[in-house]
Amino acid sequence: MILTRPYHLVVRFANITNKYLLYRCSSSTDRCETISAALKQFYLKVHPDLFSQYPKEKDVNEKSLQLVSAYLSGLQRKEYMASISVTFFTKSSSKSSPPAQISLISHRITLNSNDLLASVNSILTALNLPIVNRPKEQKQVDRHEIQFNIIEIEKFYDFTKIPKISIKTWLTNNVEAARIIAKRHQELLNDINDKVNSIKERFKLKSIEYSDEWSVPQFSTCLRTLIMYADKWHNKLLTLQGKRLIFGDKSCLLQDGSLELSANDPPIYWDHVICCELLESNKYMEKIASYENNLSQYFHGIKIGQDPDSEYLCRAHTYLYHLIQLSAHLNLNCHHEAHRKISWTNFYLFINPYSSEASLTNSGFFQINAFDATMDILDFMIANRKQAEETRILYEKDVEKERNLLEIIKEQFNLTDILINRRLKKSDINQCCQRLLNERQHFLNILTKCRLKIDKNYNLAQNGTISIPWDWSFSPNETLSIYMLRFLGRVVVVTGAGNGLGKEYALAFGERGASVVVNDLGGNPSGDGSHSARPADEVVKLIQSRGGKAVADYHSVEDGKAVIDTAIKNFGRIDILVNNAGILRDKSFMNMTEQDWDLVHRIHLRAAYLLTYAAWSYMRQQKYGRVIFTTSTSGLYGNFGQANYSAAKMGLVGLSNTLALEGAKYNITCHTIAPTAYSRLTQDLLPPDAEENLKPAFVMPLVLYLCHESCTDTGSLFEVAGGWIGKVRLEKSSGAMVRRPNTPMTVEDVRDNWKDIISFATPLHHLTQTEQVTHLLDTIRKLNNNDDDKVITQTFSYTANQIILYALSVGCSLRQPNSLRFLYENHEEFSALPTFAVIPAQSLSMNLISSGKLGIDIDLLRALHGEQYVELFEPLPTSGTVILKGKLVDVLDKGSGAIIIFDVEMYNEKEKLIALNQFVIFSVGSGGFGGKKTSENQRKSLPAPQRKSDQICRETTNIDQAALYRLNGDSNPLHIDPSFASAAGFPRPILHGLCSFGYAARHVLHTYANNNPALFKAIKVRFSKPVEPGQTIETHMWREGNRIFFESKVPESNQTILTGGYVDLHDVVLNTNTPGTAQESSTSSSEVELKAKTAFDEINKRAKSQPDLVKKVGAIIVFDITKDGNFQRSWTIDGKKGTIYEGKPLEGTTAQVTITVDDNDFVDLASGKANAPALFAKGKLKVKGNVMLAQKLSTLFKDQAKL
Fold it and tell me: What is the value of pTM for the model shown?
């Protein structure tokens, strides 16, 4: 018969039975029609009417169509469908076969997606029928029964109207199911891994593999069967040593000597394969190797192997047969003799019995078939020789790129694993990976902890692997509101679920995949009368009839633990709790009894506490939970005759708000709803016509959304009724500060400000108590810091002597170039160091703290100087009087303490601003007051660049440095009195932080401004560790434009004392005395030459030629070299890595021994003129750490002494 439109054929099928008409879609008509049209080509392949001469296959297709029909129909009703696996038969006839010779092909289809388009796509793909299809040639079902008008068919099968599935749509609808499937099988997978490792170790296998299409239980069953018969097959399976064991579609010996076993075959067939084919495997492999060797010689060195992009391996005997035929074919064609002289080294040949013609694979392999007599193999290979080589090179580059991209994606997307379909081109895979990275902000949270596969189509495998096509489409602006929010794997407890709102919640949760505990005592609205199990049982039956999971619970909500135990006993967890149960005892306040009050509070407030308390520990442990409390507008606004009810309902709001804060760190959200709906409790209060407009179904969507994992909001209160939803919040007036500084507050002050107190012209609302307390503190602080009182002003006079004293106290010396300008008042360029600005400012800062005008109390014994900022607007005068103005900038709450920030501005006698100081003080133990954490007014410290420093400046402080610096005005006994320092926890007095600050500033000024203070603009630093007088300050500097980053360290303790520092300069003028890479300076004007350096250079030179020499030391030993009692430099001998280098041990390593020795004594020690015990006895050699390890240096120095 000839049909002009294939639609007629489908109609004929429909006339027989209508059970295959799957789609009656209530949404877009166009979408419905295009989906139906796409499936028509599927019907034309599998419909039972076409298999009347094949009864068995017809019956299989009949049953499979019924299952597919039910599955797709369920998806249209937005139901959650369990996965199904079906088999379909289709007809196929080869071009070379006679018309009557038709073969049947079976197709296995697994449907486990709850996405409609994805399921249709899976069906079509399984039968090689793409969803977008314009056939290039005539479509046929059976050429002897039906012929199609090709023009009409091309027109009819234009499926471009079907929207391409978006990756975000697919992932949003299926990734949750993927996680649940994977989690469900995790314990089984762990058991499988143990079995796999046991089998691999026992039989020395290379690997055990199985298809993603297999279910985890199916693979586990195969492993158990193998273990059961392992003793029987032991000797035979040992022949697989170094080979693979594959669980696949067939049971046979493969071409590479591996063994494939099919789950569909019984153990008796496995026994046949193992005992027969595997027993002959050595003979097969020897013959295969022999013929491959002959072919390799024939093609002059070509490598014969498996194409890396082909996962399919054929049977060993099939492969051997093709090798024999190919060899015979080539030997018969003697005219190829001339070609045999060509070298094919580094070329690859892939023998594929299923290829139709010679071709070049994506990886650069020549793919040939032994049975195409018309194929001129050598001519083809020669013609494509250059292309094969280029393809191979590109392929290897793509492989490396693919490996790197997959690792990056796995790390950035936090995937459990990432897989690829080896049949895809490497370039396509890399393109897919790059697109994922480019759009990663849209998928990062979606794909967390998933097993992702890059494939040809969307799919959700039975082991939880979620697949995406390499050419996925995506629109960043797409809306996902049309897709169902599901609760697969979630367990929900709904109280009062026998009727009204609770019943609506329970049914909706059940329809969307959740397991539901339907709690209802079965009493009347007032809580009196007999109890009945009927309401809960009816709801459970209704959920189960719709394919859901549910159990009934008849406990009173006052027995909260028993209700939650029902969920744990039946489903093993609790994810969502909806506190919905309630009763009414409405009476006016004077007529209300204590029983009326207590009963309502017990059911509404106390029961909600008991239920939530019982569920809370489970939710905390699993780090997931959703809790809903049900309040009422009576609680929010009050209602006559409901004093008991409104008080209890408002109590739930407070409970929810607090639990939202406590649960946030455990991913537990809490919300409160105030619903208005027609139910048993409200039917006597609402007019009859309200039933239609105030259905419980109009409240349900809000509750389900708040309980879904995609909703991360928490601590909210909502009113909901009749489809209207609004968020409710507490609000207050801006109020009025009725108190005045230094004036008693009176009743009359309240009366006089009453209008402002109650005005909501500019309302305020706070989301947390912290915000409320912060606002209150700010209001009080504004009162205390009004314009008249907030600034402290004082003057400070100084002379040139104080300028010079400060310079000496921060290390200035006549031995240093260009330092005379800071030490001699008659110098033509006599100047103050820029950091002298801290001296006047520090005197005012102490007055500011002690005055009490900050509005806070600070214990000076618990106050630490945290950070310092100085900015100059012009060079400091060398003498005169300056005006200082200090004010509090901010107070920050850091939990363990408070940070107090205040500014001190410095003006000259003409009241022109010349400098700004910002002090940051950390007050230990003053935190926890609910204040803000950061301040926009704080000058931030900045981290140093992540590279080796550009310049280094070292300088040793004097033992009397602190005694000298305290003469500037900071007389804290911590810096000079040993007993006071000891009481503060220090072994000896420490140097002032601002003194080390001055040293670092000098180092930067010397290196990058040639000691010209006019180039200085600003400095910022953070104090991290103390310095002891006499220790060395080593400043590391990095230049970035006119900003110099710096850090300062103490080499003796290897501690960083100043961090986050930078100096801003108006211009950079490099010191001409500074070397190009790093400046090493001490108290002298030039670098001290050390003899130890020459000795270490010689030792290092010899160590490089004898790497094991240093490793014999076996320990990390540091030499601190001194000169005239002052520390100069350190060298490290790392006996573990076999290296010697200048400086302290690298990060991550710790010195085991530290030896301090003078430069001359070290040279004598290294050359053998002196011995260590003698130097130690005289006090010239100091050892810290394990003394015995130092003896291992003898080998190193013994050879050195010979030089």
Answer: 0.37
